[in-house]
Amino acid sequence: MTATTTSGELTEVLGQLMQRAKPGQQQLLMATAERMAAARYRAWADNESGERRIALLACAAREEEVARRIEGLHTDADAVQAQIREQNPDLGTLAGEFFARFPVEEQYRLQAQAERLGAATWRSLAKRAEGGALRDVFLTCAALEEESAVVLESF
């Protein structure tokens, strides 16, 4: 499979994932996906050592930070995310099944692309945000995503 094919597949999977959310739930679905990515980073870190392990754990922490910031924007985040997970029981395995088809180095490359797509999404939301505080949250999330992409690309 070529890099272009897998990139297209990744974009398609992420698009299908976003279509699962009702209007107004997309940000919290994305926060849920960020937590799933954090778990994936920790699993990768379990199989690495030294600098690479440390870098992957830092990426996991950034994913959790993005999720916390987005969840903090919604007073009903826990309830909505529980509803999203209930309505999408395969959510936890969707990304895992996608990534499992590839060797770990390819998984890193694909995750870097996902981070860049996430950053672009947060920047797009920042452009439409009403208020500077909300815009700042989205731009911070974009920067965190970019930071992880750079780490993965360095591998």
Automatic annotation (TrEMBL):
<dbReference type="InterPro" id="IPR009078">
    <property type="entry name" value="Ferritin-like_SF"/>
</dbReference>
<protein>
    <recommendedName>
        <fullName>DUF892 family protein</fullName>
    </recommendedName>
</protein>
